[in-house]
Specification:
By secondary structure, the protein is an alpha+beta fold. The chain contains ten helices and twelve strands. The strands form three sheets. A five-stranded antiparallel β-sheet has the order 2-1-5-4-3. It has a five-stranded mixed β-sheet with strand order 7-9-10-12-11. Strands 6-8 form a two-stranded antiparallel ribbon. Strand 11 and strand 12 form a beta hairpin. The radius of gyration is 51 Å and the shape is rod-shaped. The two termini are 62 Å apart. The structure holds adenosine-5'-diphosphate.
């Protein structure tokens, strides 16, 4: 059943539900009809028994000997009078119609009126037996009605149900199959179209039927998914291309340096110089590789940060200590303003330290000698706010929305010269977001920039 196409499964279910419904309907209709016939017959039997009782009530006190004749006359006048019998309190027949005698319907000593079915010599009978208390004795009255005609009608009805139901069932199931086929044809079309989409043509989209139903929603949802996949795919391809490009440059540089040094015999100092240059490039390359691996792990979700209660004030103070050393080396003034006392956040101390250093390092890198770097940490409305402000070169309006993108550098030459590859801020933003925080920037070209980080505080 599991391998069958949906339209077949749907039809099978439809068939099963319909078959059960038909069986239930047939049974209920049949028994309802039977009950209704019986209650109509019972009513007429009750009327007839009551007629006989009234007659006996009139005749018995005055003329008991004539009772049998009167009952016979009465019976002959009745349409179905031929099926009645009356016994006296001792069980002797007072009157017994011809058919009752022929079928020898046994007497029944019932206190109240009871109706029951009896099959005698292939003739189905419905009998009502009752008792009439007259002149101090109990007389047994029985009236009957033949049920053969009714049973024929019921049988006929049963056969009609038995023959017509399977036919209707087949017709309805064929209709059900046709409808599910029709309803699922667009799904086949979507499946076929989706099968043709690969990484090479991720920009193709499925045709969206304007049917305002689930299928339109399905195609739109799949198209939305394709769009997200395409964007992610583009990001990855771009990232790989940028990463290889960034790696190629230092490798090429190292190779040229080594080849040039080996072209002819040289002084030891020359070799030393070449090796120092190669070592510098190697350091840049391994930092780059480390950053790339961090981002790759972050993307695949395996970069597990070690969250613990961390004193952000302490962490920030330590980052500022290193920031001050960097600033002093470049002859920049460095000021820090850190809130007293601990600010406890749920965070990874190592990652947070790294984030602060990225911001401080950038502030120092992009501020010319003689400038200023200010670092502050405060707490506002349950958030720790760390601000790194510089009086550096600033960031142009066109570059601002992009600086958190991977490998984005507002000024490639200057950034590279400073040892940057354009990954710092994207790593920083990832760390901030992984801590449930945000990072924003304000900047004016030629005047400086402010990077503001907000992190939720556990307690201060
Ligand atoms: P990089 O390694 O190039 O510094 P980042 O991701 O840290 O990469 O920064 C991306 C770009 O944003 C930098 O190349 C630079 O153009 C700009 N930038 C970042 N911080 C500052 C700053 N404090 N002042 C001016 N420009 C900045």
């Amino acid at each position: 059943m599991r391998q069958l196409p949906i339209r077949v499964k749907l039809t099978a279910w439809y068939f099963a539900v319909l078959a059960v419904t038909f069986v239930l309907f047939g049974a209920v209709a049949f028994f309802a009809m039977q009950k209704s016939i019986e209650s109509t017959v019972d009513e007429s039997l009750r009327d007839r028994a009551e007629g006989i009782r009234e007659l006996m009530e009139r005749v018995l006190p005055k003329d008991p000997e004539r009772l049998a004749d009167v009952l016979r006359e009465h019976a002959e006048l009745q349409e179905e009078g031929d099926l009645s019998q009356v016994a006296d309190p001792d069980g002797h027949w007072i009157y017994r119609s011809r058919l009752m005698r022929r079928y020898d319907v046994p007497t029944k000593e019932a206190a109240g009126p009871v109706t029951y079915n009896l099959q005698i010599q292939k003739l189905p009978l419905r009998i009502l037996a009752t008792q009439a208390r007259l002149s101090g004795g109990s007389y047994y009255i029985q009236v009957a009605a033949p049920m053969d005609d009714f049973q024929d009608a019921l049988n006929h009805f049963k056969w009609v149900l038995l023959l017509i139901s399977p036919l209707l069932l087949l017709l309805a199931s064929a209709g059900g199959y046709w409808m599910s086929r029709r309803a699922l044809t667009p799904v086949d079309a979507i499946t076929q179209a989706a099968q043709t989409i690969t990484s090479r043509n991720l920009s193709s989209r499925l045709a969206v039927p304007q049917s305002r139903d689930e299928l339109q929603r399905l195609s739109e949802t799949l198209n939305g998914m394709l769009e997200r996949l395409e964007a992610a795919f583009k990001r990855i391809t771009q990232f790989t291309a940028d990463a290889s490009h960034e790696l190629r440059t230092p490798v090429a540089l190292m190779r040229t340096t080594a080849e040039l040094s080996l072209r002819r015999p040289r002084q030891e100092t020359e070799y030393r110089e070449a090796l120092t240059q190669i070592l510098r490039e190697l350091e840049t390359t391994s930092t780059l590789i480390e950053k790339l691996m961090l981002l790759a792990r972050a993307d695949s979700g395996v970069e597990a940060l070690q969250f613990a209660h961390t004193d952000l004030a302490d962490n920030f103070r330590e980052a500022c200590r290193q920031g001050r050393t960097l600033a002093q080396a470049k002859e920049l003034s460095f000021q820090e303003q850190i809130i007293e006392g601990p600010i406890i956040v749920d965070g990874d101390a190592y990652a947070l330290q790294r984030l602060f250093l990225i911001l401080l390092d950038n502030a120092v890198k992009y501020t010319p000698g003689g400038g200023q770097v200010k670092a502050s940490l405060s707490d506002t409305n349950g958030f720790a706010v760390a601000e790194i402000r510089d009086t550096g070169i600033g960031i142009g309006e066109a570059d601002l929305p992009h600086i958190f993108e991977r490998f984005y550098r507002a000024d490639k030459a200057r950034s590279r010269e400073m040892g940057g590859v354009g990954l710092g801020l994207s790593i920083g933003r990832w760390i901030a977001e992984a801590h449930g925080g945000t990072m924003e920037v304000e900047s004016t070209v030629g005047q400086g920039s402010v990077f503001r980080l907000r992190l939720p505080i556990l307690r201060s």
